[in-house]
């Protein structure tokens, strides 16, 4: 009976056909409207308008492709879980060109599962977290110490200094110095082409980015070869020190036809930098932005972290990774930042077969945009969705599992999830226990990726030198609504 009613519901909703919607103008479809909404403070307005007209799942035409957009958490879950391998990633052409077909971000089936499990297992391991915590802490402290001499600093730049070094360290253990500077320079040149016109002849953006990738590959190839030799010589069986070690060792142990070629390993190490490079510093930057606009939250965050700092000082013990993750309000601030920031606003997939989800037909060859932002900003799930409200997580907890997907979900759930949360926690801890700051006016821009228009300029002062009357929370005492920045 239950099955019957479900089926009736589906048929009544959509008659089991391709979701309703409008394909817009020939060739450009509804792309201009989509991009225009990305330049407003409410990028989700594109989805909201169509959701009202056609329902939670609708069809449209974006960036040259007819596409089905899902703003329904249940449909999103099915697409992300991808049982039966019906969906494959579908990136715009410029991204596909730059990634190469063997990148973890594009590959499918067993190889993706294997690399995902290896990298995810390593990033989640307590051994890595123990080691990397000291590294992150030092990196954060060095950056924060340099703020003392700065009149005005840009949070978006400063946080990048911390996270790039950590990222390169967990991937291939390159420490500060010429090699790291080279990687940073070339990687920045490489990713400039991720969203550009897909034309590649000398002088075009895509061409320059492909050249930068060649230079990166050359350098990483050398690192991979040296490491392989070192592994063979020492026959090391201990704890792997980075992702490169993990992939090389797995390859050594695999049978000949399962072994991963060195070029594949080098390419993937570079490509794994893409999802990690801008996301973590943006999350840190937006946390600072939201906290600056919500002094009550900042004050509670500071108190919670001061308590931990005091405990550590009194006991004389050093911080370990579990300390940083043990503070409930700090974790709620991070969840709320990720919900509101929508650093990755959704993912694109392509259906290899016809599939019916909740009565919506997704025909073979169609793309699906799994929209995370529409769910994160849905007022039926999150009351006052534009309000930065870390306290909402005290009530929500695990109840919103399907509706909270800043790190994606299912088969491709971000392997850097725990590492990212740890990095952000360490940054926030040392920031709010060392500094008070005043943020200048700035705006969040959502297109093509989330950024602060002026890189979030702030004036920071160490807590010790603040005069007593400055010792309240910064700002006007109430949380502002994110869309009104
Ligand atoms: C706040 C920070 C981060 C956010 C919001 C984020 C978000 C995401 C999302 C939404 C996906 C799913 C993509 C898809 O389904 O196609 C993803 C995948 C991925 N992320 Fe992250 N990420 C973050 C940090 C990191 C870091 C630090 C690393 C690496 C050290 C990383 C490595 C990856 C990799 C390798 C994948 C691809 C997994 C696969 O396709 O099997 N991410 N990330």
Describe this structure in words.
This protein has 485 residues and is of the alpha+beta class. The protein folds into 3 domains: 2-101 and 344-376, Uridine Diphospho-n-acetylenolpyruvylglucosamine Reductase, domain 2, CATH 3.30.43; 109-131 and 160-275, no CATH class; 279-342 and 386-484, Cytochrome p450, CATH 1.10.630.10. The chain is built from 20 helices and 12 strands. The chain has helices at residues 2-14, 31-38, 45-54, 73-81, 93-99, 109-124, 126-146, 155-172, 178-191, 205-234, 243-253, 262-271, 273-277, 279-292, 295-315, 321-325, 328-341, 372-376, 392-396, 417-434, and strands spanning 57-62, 65-70, 87-89, 153-154, 346-351, 355-357, 360-362, 367-371, 435-439, 444-445, 451-452, 457-462. The strands form 4 sheets. Strands 1-2-8-5-3 form a 5-stranded mixed β-sheet. β10 and β11 (451-452) form a beta hairpin. The longest helix is centred in the middle third of the chain and has 30 residues, at 205-234. The radius of gyration is 23 Å and the shape is globular. The termini are far apart.
